[in-house]
Write a structure and sequence with these properties.
- By secondary structure, the protein is mainly beta.
- The protein has one domain: Immunoglobulin-like.
- Helices cover 0% and strands 48% of the residues.
- The chain is built from no helices and six strands.
- Strands 1-2-5 form a three-stranded antiparallel sheet, with no helix packed on it. A three-stranded antiparallel sheet has the order 4-3-6, with no helix packed on it.
- Strand 3 and strand 4 form a beta hairpin.
């Protein structure tokens, strides 16, 4: 089974609003040869099943493993944000 894991930020990361950082990930295709894109989504309130806030970006390349993100200054200063990465396949797209 294919999977993708965020490697940065970690739960101990402390990123300031307005600063720029790399979101990085690893992926294991588990027998699947390709996918169409990776969606990076921002959530709040927990590490799984939290409140969806926004799509950070959708990346349309299998060879990219990082994204440089400037944290919006409009976000509240808090510690309970997390980023989720999801592989998308053509059949998942609207």
């Amino acid at each position: 089974m294919a999977s993708i894991t965020i490697t940065s930020p970690t739960s101990s990361s402390d990123w300031e609003r307005g600063s720029t950082h790399n979101i990085t990930w690893t992926k294991s295709l588990g027998g699947l040869e390709e996918f169409d894109s990776i969606d990076l989504k921002l959530y709040r309130n927990g590490t799984s099943g939290g409140d969806y806030l926004s799509l950070i970006t959708s990346i349309n390349s299998e060879s990219i493993n990082s994204y440089s993100w400037t944290i919006p200054t409009t976000l509240s200063a808090d510690t309970d944000y997390y980023i989720e990465a999801k592989m998308r396949y053509e059949e998942d797209m609207p």
